[in-house]
Design brief:
It is a single chain. The protein is of the alpha/beta class and 347 residues long. The protein has eleven helices and 13 strands. The strands form two sheets. Strands 8-9-7-10-13-12-11 form a seven-stranded mixed β-sheet. Strand 5, helix 6 and strand 6 form a beta-alpha-beta unit. The mean pLDDT is 96. Bound molecules: NADPH dihydro-nicotinamide-adenine-dinucleotide phosphate and N-acetyl-L-glutamyl 5-phosphate (X2W). One of its GO terms (molecular function) is NAD binding. Pathway: Amino-acid biosynthesis; L-arginine biosynthesis; N(2)-acetyl-L-ornithine from L-glutamate: step 3/4.
């Protein structure tokens, strides 16, 4: 089989370099173009020395004629950029994976409200699939544009959807307590992300409303079949990579801890990137650092009608670049785990 020719728009950010790290070890993919307007002409390895010896490429400015020579283009760019090039590229037969949010939310009135811009490409939505393979695999196989999910939605939905799909909880009041490492804010993040500002400190943000909330609500309703009342509070924790979401809901079923454990194990038994931890254990972010795994635990706290699920991912891998490569593999009929078998870094 010929290698898949890959273009990356926006190669200088954290998700761009993470795509490059993963694709360097992918036997069926070849990165042929990578763009940056600010770093035009700079060799990849000069900017990211971890890539020395892996690529003989330089950043070039985004050029649609050249991008059309690729089989697939990843957009590791701010919101709004993929939308501006998607029609031209898909007309030329190129597949697209957007790591930003341009195609994540189908209700475009909601999208515009949260992203503060008009959506100009409503007509492309019949080519789009939401790139959470564990729940949208069949749609992904048929799609030309993949909306790679946000990091908080990936971890939260993998943790919560078995409860919603099986109608086990009160959907009016689900609470998601999210925590992310600072790389989630991107390389161009502001002074609040400096070591001296965020180290030895811990804070909530986006309490009044975070843009991942409407994404989760729309997809949870699609999969679970009912509107969900969701409170989502993200927190910034002083670590570089990693994300943990703790999900709280009230049971409407009598299922025991052991039955829930069995349900989760059964739900994800064939999923290569979801690990339901053994009963009584808890996942930590370092158990997934650098890997495409999501690890989950489920608990029924003693004497309570609550159920608590904890879910961890690496925000840059299963939360962004790793999931994007997983989606590429599905789109091209490649083994879904190809290039994604990195074991987490410990310690
Ligand atoms: N960091 C994370 O954990 C996650 C990030 N994401 C999303 O992935 C996307 C990329 O994130 P991240 O890697 O952190 O991003 P950065 O903001 O660090 O990098 C953005 C990249 O996009 C390029 N770029 C910016 N504007 C344009 C434009 N108008 N046209 C073409 N290229 C442009 C920049 O290069 P230049 O300006 O030189 O062209 C740069 O290479 C974002 O949408 C982010 O929200 C998704 C999930 C998780
Ligand atoms: C710590 C931090 O700031 N995290 C980012 C979310 C990560 C991300 O980039 O999400 P998108 O894919 O939707 O852009 C935030 O809360 O805005």
């Amino acid at each position: 089989m010929q290698k898949v020719k890959v273009g990356i728009v926006g190669g200088t950010g954290y998700t761009g370099v993470e795509l490059l790290r993963i694709l360097a070890a992918h036997p069926q993919a070849e990165v042929t173009m990578i763009t940056s307007r600010s770093e035009e002409g700079v060799a990849l390895a000069d900017m990211y020395p971890n890539l020395r010896g892996h690529y003989d490429l330089r950043f070039s400015v985004p050029d649609s004629a050249q991008l059309k020579t690729c089989d697939i283009v990843f957009f590791a760019t701010p919101h709004g950029v993929a939308m501006s090039m998607a029609a031209e590229l898909t007309d030329a037969g190129v597949k697209i994976i957007d790591l930003a949010a341009d195609f994540r939310i189908e209700n475009l009135t909601v999208w515009s409200k949260w992203y503060g811009m008009e959506h100009t490409e409503a007509s492309l939505f019949d080519k789009v699939a939401y790139g959470l393979p564990e729940y949208y695999r069949e749609q992904i196989k048929q799609a030309q544009i993949i909306a790679n999910p946000g990091c908080y939605p990936t971890s939260t939905m993998l943790g919560a959807l078995p409860l919603l799909k099986n109608n086990l909880v009160d959907v009016n009041n689900i609470i998601v307590d999210g925590k992310s490492g600072v790389s989630g804010a991107g390389k161009g993040a502001n002074v609040a992300m400096l070591g001296a500002e965020m180290s030895e400190s811990f804070k909530a943000y986006g309490v009044a409303g975070h843009r991942h909330l409407p994404e989760m609500k729309e997809k949870m309703a699609q999969i679970g079949g009912r509107e969900v009342g969701l409170t989502f509070v993200p927190h910034l924790v002083p670590m570089i990579r990693g994300m943990e979401n703790t999900i709280y809901a009230t049971m409407t079923s009598e299922m025991s801890q052991a039955q829930l454990q069995e349900l989760y194990e059964e739900t994800y038994k064939d999923e290569p990137f979801v690990d339901v931890m053994p009963a009584g254990s808890l996942p930590e972010t370092r158990m997934v650092k650098g890997s495409n795994m999501c690890r989950i635990a489920i608990y029924r706290p003693v004497g309570s009608s609550q159920v608590v699920v904890t879910s961890v991912i690496d925000n840059l891998v299963k939360g962004a670049a790793g999931q994007a490569v997983q989606n590429m593999n599905i789109l091209f009929g490649i083994d879904e785990t190809m290039g994604l078998q990195q074991v987490a870094l410990l310690p």
